[in-house]
Structures are given as structure tokens and as C-alpha cells.
Amino acid sequence: PRNLVRVIEDGIGEQKFSGFEHMQPMPGFAGKLSPAQLTDLINYLRQGWGGQSAELAVSDVQKLQAEAPSIEHKAH
């Protein structure tokens, strides 16, 4: 879940592949989602797309955020 927290908060830059294919950048959402909203989103993605349990608590996500602060929070 740590990587998912980082991707949601920091976003992903544009990805270029061979040929003409590329993936548009995804903006980060650091500071735009409450801890509860972020936890709900992570649990939804883990369960709906990752086939994993949706059992993370808000405190679990806050701990992950504290261990690896977002780029936005590192800048301040």
C-alpha cells in the first residue's frame, strides 16, 4: 500500500513507450483528500483492481504517509 499512497499523493509523470504510445501524466492529490477519503480510495483500488482485502484503517495510511512524506510535504 505504500506505493499506492505515494502514487495518489505525488502523481505520475508522463510515461513514453516505444513507438507513438504514451501515458498521460496523473496529477498528485496530496493535501486534497482527507485521511479518510485517501483510505477509502486505497481500499477500493486494492479490492477492486488488486484482488486484495480492503482492510486498511485510516491510522495505517497515516503511518505510511509519515514514513514516506509526499513530495509536497517534503518541500515545506
Describe this structure in words.
One of its GO terms (molecular function) is electron transfer activity. This protein has a single domain, classed as Cytochrome c-like domain (Cytochrome Bc1 Complex, Chain D, domain 2). The protein is 49% helix and 5% strand. It is built from four helices and two strands. It has helices spanning 2-10, 35-48, 58-67, 71-74; strands at 15-16, 22-23. The radius of gyration is 14 Å and the shape is globular.
Core attributes:
Cyt_c-like_dom_sf, two-stranded antiparallel ribbon, electron transfer activity, 5% strand, heme binding, Cytochrome Bc1 Complex, Chain D, domain 2, 4 helices
Give the helices and strands, then pairings.
Layout: H1 2-10, E1 15-16, E2 22-23, H2 35-48, H3 58-67, H4 71-74
Antiparallel strand pairs: 1-2
Helix pairs in contact: 2-3
How many domains is the backbone divided into? Answer: 1
Name of the CATH superfamily: Cytochrome c-like domain
Number of strands: 2
Shape: globular
End-to-end distance, in Å? 24 Å
**Range of strand content:** 5-15%
In spatial order, strands of the major sheet run 1-2
The helix/strand class is: mainly alpha
| The CATH C-level class name | Mainly Alpha
CATH topology grouping: Cytochrome Bc1 Complex, Chain D, domain 2
Structure described in brief:
InterPro entries: Cyt_c-like_dom_sf. The chain has 76 residues and is mainly α.
